[in-house]
Structure of unspecific monooxygenase:
Amino acid sequence: MALFASLTLLVILISIFFLYYKKKYSYWSNKGVKGPTPWPVVGNFGNIILQKESLDMCIRRIYSKFRAEKLVGIYAGYKPTLLVKDPELVKCVLIKDFDVFNERGFSSSKSRLSINLFSADGEKWRIMRQKLTPVFTTKKLREMIPTIQNCVKDFLLYVENLVDKNIDYEIRALAGKYTLEVIGSCAFGLDLHTFTEEENEFSKMAKKIFNPSTKLKILNLIDLIFPGIRRNFVSSTERQEFFVNLVREIQKEREGKPLKHKDFMDLMIELKEQGKASRKLEDGIAEIEIDDYMIAAQALVFYSAGFETSAATMSFLIHEMALNLDIQDRVYKEICEVVDKHNGDINYDAIKNMKYLEMVMNETSRKHSIATVFLRRSTSTYTFPGTNVTIPKGTSIMIPASGLHKDPKYFPNPDKFDPERFAPGKLISSIPQCAFLPFGEGPRICIGMRFAKVQTLLGTAAFLKKFKVEPSSKTKSELILDPKAVVVSAKNGIWVKISKR
């Protein structure tokens, strides 16, 4: 009798679970939106939880499977999430109807550093964006050029020393030394001394940011299944202490002195002296307090995003130059011709005239997307134009940038490295707006886009003018991406042979 009762209870529990599962995972089918079959509890992110795929790999696989669909319904755990694939609908999300999709809905930790330009929403984001934009004007970028050029000079000397000693060096790590030095100089007015074999506190912190602890990895994976849970935890007190102490030390060093650097920290010091930053609204004023923690939060974003993404782009570009020597020769020829016209100087105006190098960088950003998936959240009920799909307030949206970049509909033969796709005029005439999203698009486009381009082009132009790269015994024609990496990375690194010209 007891066994019968236990079996009956088990059947009832299984039936309840099945009905719950069926109800939860019928959300998109009830709306007529196609999508992959989810698994219980994990939804469509099972392979991510098992660390067999990164989020980018998972979304690209789904993108390819439902190539004909404009919208695809997926589940983060039990939470319905909409994959917006059609460039015109992507344009609606990122640009036309930005007021509905101005929030990332990004689940950040409880740390005060989470209130930063990347993850903040609403008026906090608007105020920060407005106040930080002056750091990246054309005038400011021109003023930074001599500082970047000094970093380039040290970078070239370091590489030359490696070549003289016939030392193999992984390209991603090499590019990271350069971009970290640039960020340290341009954002904080510091010489980070990255061009050595010894790791300092800045290099160590960079590694910790992009190689999170097991505890943080587990927390991030759980957050995929139960979105929002990460907000209940402080992910890293060490990171918070590092950046708060950093900004305090810089402020102390500059105290009582004219703000002559005109860099990120000078701007933040000026804002802090005002006490609060505000923005006028129709029904009043929105304001945020500028204290050391607020400054540290922005410093974290500038520090991490500013060097790692550019280092990734540089390393993938150098990899492609080693595999495509004819393209490298054309790049070298253009660099020499432009530099001759600028009295041997690689400056702001010089890189603006290196059109083919910019095409190469764009093609690198397409084939090896660094910004892979953009997140948004609806702030009101919304019907996608030309469809019968209506979503309620609070719906999570994913924009599959790398999926669009690999779609043969927009980029024929997408696995081929072909800079001609971005020849002047083609980006406007043959590539739909929002099919190419290396930095996002619309009001929340990456604020540091122009700075990232300048530091990448300056460093790459100087490097390729002085050095030639070819395949080495470690060079892989097809890179295998690391599913566990925070930023897109080759699993076994990127290796090429470097020689002097």
Q: What stands out?
A: The two ends are 87 Å apart (CA to CA).
